[in-house]
Amino acid sequence: MESGIDILKGPLSGPSIENPAERSDGESRRAATLAWYGLAVLLMTTLFALVVRQMLSLIGPSLQTSLGFTDLQIGMLQGLGMAIFACVASYPMGWLADRFGRRLLLAIGVGIWSLATFFCAFQDSFGGLFAGTVGIAIGEAGLAPIVYAMIPDLFPERKRNTANLIFYAGSLFGAGIGMALGGAMLEWLAASPGSLPTWLAGIDSWRIAMVIIALPGPLFFLLVATMPLARHGVPTPVAHAGDDGAALGFLPYAKAHWRTLACVFGSMFAMAVAMTSGLIWFPIALPRAFGIDPATVGVGLGTAITAATLIGVFLPGIGLKLGQRAGGLPPIKVASFFVWLAPLPALFLPFVTSPFQAYSVAALQGAMGVAGSALMPGIIQDLAPSHLRSRILALLGIVNALALAASPLAIGLISGLIAGPRGMLYSIAIVSIPSLVAAAALISLAQRPYAATVRTVRSQFPGAEA
To answer: How far is residue 89's CA from residue 69's CA, in Å, rounded to a whole number?
Structure first.
């Protein structure tokens, strides 16, 4: 039925009145264009962050040569400095983003990690570089949680899963691309010292590389600060009539479903430890074992990671389709299948005799890890009520940060006990293989409590479906 206002509008508007349906279609197309533009900005910003992060791994051998750092100190820079402070800053960054604006906090984070990267280039001591990595960690702490929280502001619900998958795949491709770009940059700087300006003569190539990757910071700050938000996300009400207010709180929820959370996040932690061990230490382990240049490792390992990502991002869709034909296997069971496959190629790592074999092991292990991990965001969405998802995502960031701290330190300590050029390679295997087995066991143990949690969440919070 038309309202009085609508009736009055008719005669005054005349025959040239805009069709509401056409206006709505135009607005929808514009909103969709802006949403995809926003996702592109988020992906490019993430790639920028990953280049910075991977460069810290690639310059490890150069730091040992020019500054005399030990394996333990490199592990502290790449693990302790990055991870602990990222862990500490993750939840506060998420809280500030919810309170003052996610776009604003993400832009501030870009500024922080860019300045910290520039700062690292001028340090000559372990303490100075450690402070720089702390700054990078704080700036990047809120990246993934804030981005995943911004996606509902960009896309309507029917398109969020697609956007999440694209961002997840893009982030993983970014790890390989970041490694390859960083390796190529170091390789070029090492091979072309004469092409640099004379005022750069005698400056360590790793310092020049850190300055170069810090330079795009102001551009990404502006891109993030000005990106449009369609604000499709609808805040979940704090309470409904007849609801138990305590049931809506995070602590009561975590207490009621601690088995599910412990198994799911424990599996993610163990998987992150295994994947991080290779990503961080291969650039140091392979030059020692096979006498090749670190920059060459960056290109080769980056290519292997990219190949693993290409394979891994397509496997979950195939697994889910096969699961439907087998009677409708839930995503957590499909994820468990891929996670159980991940330790198999890792068993061959201690026996590789060439860099190509090491890259192949990394690619196969990475593909299975990616396939299992790609299903985890949807699993988390299913087990958490919508009003708690940002806090659950903060937990994911904390878990990954703890894994980033544990893995480099563990391998750095073990490698000091194993003599010989292949000691670092053996250390990676000693840490990664048990971690992968633990990840598979925990995700299998999670299936029964996870199903109970999903049933409870959907019955208590019917609007909290993924």
So the answer is: 27
Identify residue 317 by its one-letter amino acid code: G
In the chain the domains, ranked by start, together with CATH numbers, are: 34-231 (1.20.1250.20), 250-466 (1.20.1250.20)
Two tokens, residue 301: 């390992």
One digit per residue, pLDDT tens: the chain, 466 residues?
Answer: 444 444 334 444 444 455 555 556 666 778 788 889 999 999 999 888 888 887 877 887 788 878 888 877 877 777 666 767 777 787 788 777 777 777 898 999 999 999 999 998 888 888 888 888 888 888 888 788 788 778 777 887 667 767 777 888 888 777 777 777 887 888 777 777 666 676 666 677 788 888 888 999 999 999 999 988 755 444 444 444 344 444 467 788 889 999 999 999 999 999 999 888 777 788 888 888 888 877 778 788 878 877 888 888 888 878 877 877 777 778 899 899 999 999 999 999 999 999 899 999 989 998 999 888 877 877 877 787 766 776 777 787 788 777 877 887 788 888 878 888 888 889 999 999 999 999 999 999 999 999 999 899 878 765 444 3
Per-residue tokens: 12: 């005054």
The structure's pTM equals 0.67
Are the C-beta atoms of residues 431 and 414 closer than 8 Å to each other? yes
**Structure-block tokens of residue 104:** 């604003």
